[in-house]
Amino acid sequence: MTAPGLSARLVVTRPAFRLDVSFDVVPGEVVALLGPNGAGKTTALRALAGLIGLAAEGHITLDGRPLHTEPPDRRPIGMVFQDYLLFPHLSALDNVAFGPRCRGASKAEARRVAAGLLERVGLAAQAGAKPRRLSGGQAQRVALARALAVRPRLLLLDEPLAALDAHTRLEIRSQLRRHLAGFDGATVLVTHDPLDAMVLADRLVVVEDGAVVQQGGPAEVARRPRTDYVARLVGLNLYRGSGDGARVKVGELPFSTIEQVDGPAFVAFSPAAVALYRTRPDGSPRNLWQAAVEGVERHGDNVRVHLGGPIAAFVDITPAALADLDLSPGRQVWAAVKATETHAYPA
Amino acid sequence: MTTTSRSGSARGGGRVVAGRLPWVLVVPALLGLAFLVLPLAGLLIRAPWPTLLQRLSEPQILEALRLSVVTATIATAVCLLLGVPLAWLLARVDLPGKRVVRALVTVPLVLPPVVGGVALLLVLGRRGLVGQWLESAFGVTLPFTTAGVVIAEAFVAMPFLVISVEGALRAADQRYEEAAATLGASRWTVFRRVTLPLVAPGIVAGAVLCWARALGEFGATITFAGNFPGTTRTMPLAVYLALETEPEAAIVLSLVLLAVSVVILASLRDRWVNAA
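^ Those are the sequences you sent over. The predicted structure of the assembly is below.
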């Protein structure tokens, strides 16, 4: 319990909703809470900040000190809100200086700290500007500077990139990554965007319906999703079955895999790994099944085919292949996946 | 060209083919309008325009004017000092029985001011619950003094300020206050450095409204503070008195109060008149 960093069990009960998630963050680590809207991610972040209370079973320990008994203004935290919430009546500089002032710094000292941080996020020239005159990306960086100005031991970011347009987002994301890398405390980031989570975080904690359903490094989560939500996020077809050595049985369908799994198992493969045929292909060692086309939609430069049948699956094919196969909803096709293209792992 | 003009008129709500206006609505509406406007027009028509300035500079009028402005301003200051924290309490703190408290705050809005004056006398009068003690302990008597005028005005006007400020507090985005708390601001600092600047327009509007109400106060003032020239005879009291003796002076004073009302209405038109 005296380990440095954050150790939290966040329990919040609401009518018709219960959040109960546990996770640890070591100093210097960035953990992303990833989940669909309404999963309880923001509730978890607000509980860490002390803006909502924990149920009796919950606890928050930061650097060996209990945090859940302190009001928000006594917690060593910095928080970046989704729409930044820069004080509209204060300049960028005074927004950043607000925290140090509240924590006892003199006006001159607070402004010196604030000017240094604005410089670091590249906004020295905007120090005197009121928030309404800042662009979205600039406001985001002022909000980050404001949160860092109190020298927090725990940095909380609520959907830090959600309010930005696609172009700004790309640039701010890489800047944010650099600033987070330079921060030596624990960071908890909330996002519903898998890309933000994978780029910014060292570890992902996937939250669904108020509970942790999977956690691990971005590569691990991307390769071995454990719920349909995560599989959709990382763009994989995912099935639960039971393994007996080199095969996993999904429903009635046996999947040959290269990994050996016994007992409850997951099988995952990419939509691009599936080949479609009008007639049954001969003499191939592939995993093969017959399915009905349920729908066809554009997916980037390709076409995504939704298959029903024994197992629901997404298949990505080229527009040319679509024309050759003459696919339309209701048509029966054969689908095939090589064993080397699948991943099997224990459930 | 045609399309733009058409969309323009559609947005303005014009070009809709409506039926004839029903006279059962139009006639009472026009009568109502006349009822509200004619008395004011009468005031303007009957005003002694040629001698207006001279009458305005008569000592009793100037005295009443000065007393009214001073007491209304002090009463507004008192209301700000007590009313803004009260509004904050109602808007931000989970009090038990808050609905009852809010109802009590609004009572002076609907209470006949004379009743308010009687109530003030019963509490702060020489024999009153608190007044008795005030006199024996500090030798302070409030009824029939200028301080009494301020108290009567503040009693009647404070609900306007509280309701206006509470509305502004409820409308303000409380997440700014949360952001301030995460930056280490105590609740007092949050109030001083974030809440107050955010609701400043609401406070100004409430204070102006409060001042206008205090300036026009009659019933509670005459009941609690009496009608002594120089110390408690404010403009509304002077108007009432002058009507008996010097109708022209009453008209002049009324014009001044009307002008003040119009100016206040104009300055607040965005917040109150068009708000709905």
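Residues 1-13 of chain B have pLDDT under 50 and may be disordered. Chain B touches chain A through 17 residues (CB under 8 Å).

Shout if you want it in another format.
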